[in-house]
Amino acid sequence: MDARELVIQGIYLASSVLFILGLKSLSHPDKARLGMQQAALGMVLAIIGTLFHHEIVRFDFIALALILVIVIGYPLGMFVPMTAMPQRIAISHMFGALAATSRSAGGALYTLYTHTDQLAQLIRDPGLIPDAIEECLRIASNGYFTFARIATRDTEVGGTAIRKGMIVRPSPLAANYDPTVFPDPLRFDIHRKPKRIASFAVGPHHCVGNILGRTTITIAIRALLARFPNARLADPDFVPVYGGSVGELRLQSLPMRMQ
Question: What is the pLDDT of residues 189-203, one digit of tens each?
Fold first, then answer.
């Protein structure tokens, strides 16, 4: 792991710790203000970490960015109205991250253990794991969520006729399979290093818990591969069965054989 990756992982870890501390403080009325300050700092750190991770801004600005965390993040918590709403929002973000994380982890494990040649590379070189997780999130995300839209005119998409007034349910996650951005998008490649994937949404809908989710999955898979390097699917012909709400891909089970 080079210095750049080490600093980014440190930012992610600090962000998660601050956000968790903020949630804990919010459960005590006398510490609610402190909780908002901690959560605000954590959120600003998460944004900065994401910008650096996806190379949206130059890494040279790290010192300036960390100063901005103190200048912007801390006062931000001072001006948030203290009602019950912030607690509910913060807790909903936490459970949202945990739910998406468990689904994404299942997809990542199934993908890795059905590509044993690339799995072996990760066992030999754990430094490849963060990029592998990004590729897992791209190709085997936690669901294919859709948002109903109404066609305003007759058109055709991918050979399918769409008439005016029809309800169309496109999935934003289709962007993860855009061949103009990800060549041969159905091929799993831990060396792809995908950028700006839509697995945790994008823009104003970007999941505030994405850093926590990514970090959790990375730590879990790193520990699993280190502790059980010879683990494999119990059934080489295993066929996954998914459940969950509409649009979710929640793996029901993944029988493994540990050695």
Answer: 999 999 888 887 777
